[in-house]
Protein backbone atom coordinates (compact mmCIF):
# COMPACT_ATOMS: atom_id res chain seq x y z
CA UNK A 1 0.00 0.00 0.00
CA UNK A 2 1.42 3.36 -1.02
CA UNK A 3 1.46 6.06 1.68
CA UNK A 4 -0.56 9.23 1.28
CA UNK A 5 1.47 12.23 0.12
CA UNK A 6 2.28 14.72 2.84
CA UNK A 7 3.02 18.31 1.89
CA UNK A 8 5.62 18.71 4.64
CA UNK A 9 7.67 15.63 3.62
CA UNK A 10 10.13 16.16 0.75
CA UNK A 11 9.03 14.36 -2.40
CA UNK A 12 12.48 13.42 -3.73
CA UNK A 13 15.10 12.31 -1.20
CA UNK A 14 18.71 11.41 -1.91
CA UNK A 15 20.42 9.01 0.50
CA UNK A 16 24.21 8.91 0.46
CA UNK A 17 25.10 5.73 2.35
CA UNK A 18 27.74 3.11 1.64
CA UNK A 19 26.04 0.30 3.59
CA UNK A 20 23.26 -1.16 1.40
CA UNK A 21 21.30 -2.58 4.34
CA UNK A 22 21.23 0.78 6.12
CA UNK A 23 20.34 2.53 2.86
CA UNK A 24 17.40 0.14 2.32
CA UNK A 25 16.19 0.73 5.87
CA UNK A 26 16.31 4.51 5.38
CA UNK A 27 14.59 4.17 2.01
CA UNK A 28 11.77 2.09 3.45
CA UNK A 29 11.21 4.52 6.32
CA UNK A 30 11.32 7.61 4.09
CA UNK A 31 8.83 6.11 1.64
CA UNK A 32 6.50 5.16 4.50
CA UNK A 33 6.69 8.76 5.72
CA UNK A 34 5.33 9.95 2.37
CA UNK A 35 8.25 10.69 0.02
CA UNK A 36 7.49 9.75 -3.58
CA UNK A 37 11.07 9.09 -4.73
CA UNK A 38 14.15 7.90 -2.88
CA UNK A 39 17.48 7.61 -4.67
CA UNK A 40 20.62 6.11 -3.18
CA UNK A 41 24.29 6.81 -3.86
CA UNK A 42 27.13 4.81 -2.25
CA UNK A 43 29.73 7.59 -2.56
CA UNK A 44 30.20 11.31 -3.16
CA UNK A 45 31.03 10.98 -6.86
CA UNK A 46 27.80 9.13 -7.63
CA UNK A 47 25.80 11.53 -5.46
CA UNK A 48 27.21 14.52 -7.36
CA UNK A 49 26.20 12.87 -10.65
CA UNK A 50 22.70 12.29 -9.33
CA UNK A 51 22.20 15.87 -8.16
CA UNK A 52 23.49 17.10 -11.53
CA UNK A 53 20.78 14.98 -13.20
CA UNK A 54 18.03 16.14 -10.84
CA UNK A 55 18.14 18.11 -7.61
CA UNK A 56 16.62 16.31 -4.65
CA UNK A 57 14.31 18.09 -2.24
CA UNK A 58 16.32 16.72 0.68
CA UNK A 59 19.48 14.65 1.20
CA UNK A 60 20.54 12.33 4.00
CA UNK A 61 24.34 12.21 4.13
CA UNK A 62 26.36 9.54 5.88
CA UNK A 63 29.41 11.38 7.22
CA UNK A 64 31.92 8.55 6.85
CA UNK A 65 31.83 6.55 3.65
CA UNK A 66 34.11 3.74 2.40
CA UNK A 67 37.87 4.20 2.28
CA UNK A 68 37.77 7.22 4.57
CA UNK A 69 35.68 9.36 2.22
CA UNK A 70 33.64 12.07 3.95
CA UNK A 71 30.48 13.67 2.60
CA UNK A 72 31.54 17.25 3.43
CA UNK A 73 32.23 18.31 -0.18
CA UNK A 74 28.76 17.11 -1.13
CA UNK A 75 27.25 19.05 1.78
CA UNK A 76 29.00 22.21 0.59
CA UNK A 77 27.60 21.66 -2.91
CA UNK A 78 24.10 21.18 -1.50
CA UNK A 79 24.50 24.45 0.44
CA UNK A 80 25.27 26.29 -2.81
CA UNK A 81 22.24 24.66 -4.47
CA UNK A 82 20.04 25.47 -1.44
CA UNK A 83 19.07 21.83 -0.90
CA UNK A 84 18.20 20.87 2.67
CA UNK A 85 20.08 17.94 4.18
CA UNK A 86 21.00 16.22 7.42
CA UNK A 87 24.10 14.28 8.34
CA UNK A 88 23.79 10.79 9.73
CA UNK A 89 26.65 9.10 11.54
CA UNK A 90 27.49 6.05 13.59
CA UNK A 91 30.17 8.03 15.42
CA UNK A 92 27.68 9.82 17.65
CA UNK A 93 28.53 13.20 19.11
CA UNK A 94 32.25 12.56 18.69
CA UNK A 95 32.25 13.32 14.97
CA UNK A 96 33.79 16.66 14.09
CA UNK A 97 32.24 18.58 11.26
CA UNK A 98 33.99 21.44 9.47
CA UNK A 99 33.06 24.81 11.04
CA UNK A 100 30.92 25.76 8.03
CA UNK A 101 28.80 22.63 8.57
CA UNK A 102 28.81 22.39 12.37
CA UNK A 103 25.27 23.74 12.76
CA UNK A 104 23.66 21.39 10.25
CA UNK A 105 21.20 18.75 11.50
CA UNK A 106 22.86 15.54 12.64
CA UNK A 107 21.29 12.14 13.33
CA UNK A 108 22.95 9.19 15.05
CA UNK A 109 22.87 5.66 13.66
CA UNK A 110 20.81 3.76 14.38
CA UNK A 111 18.23 6.45 13.84
CA UNK A 112 14.61 6.22 14.92
CA UNK A 113 11.80 6.81 12.48
CA UNK A 114 10.72 9.77 14.60
CA UNK A 115 14.17 11.40 14.37
CA UNK A 116 14.28 10.83 10.63
CA UNK A 117 10.80 12.29 10.23
CA UNK A 118 11.82 15.37 12.24
CA UNK A 119 14.84 15.88 9.97
CA UNK A 120 12.71 15.53 6.84
CA UNK A 121 10.21 18.01 8.23
CA UNK A 122 13.08 20.38 9.11
CA UNK A 123 12.47 20.13 12.85
CA UNK A 124 15.90 19.10 14.07
Automatic annotation (TrEMBL):
Keywords: Phosphoprotein. The keyword Phosphoprotein applies. The lineage of its organism: Bacteria, Pseudomonadati, Pseudomonadota, Alphaproteobacteria, Hyphomicrobiales. Residues 12-124 form the Response regulatory domain. The modification 4-aspartylphosphate is found at residue 62. InterPro entries: CheY-like_superfamily, Sig_transdc_resp-reg_receiver. PROSITE patterns: RESPONSE_REGULATORY. It comes from the Bacteria. This is Response regulator.
Amino acid sequence: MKPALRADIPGDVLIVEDDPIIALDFEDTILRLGATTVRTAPNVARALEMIAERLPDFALLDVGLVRGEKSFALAERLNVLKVRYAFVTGYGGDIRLPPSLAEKPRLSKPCSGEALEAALRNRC
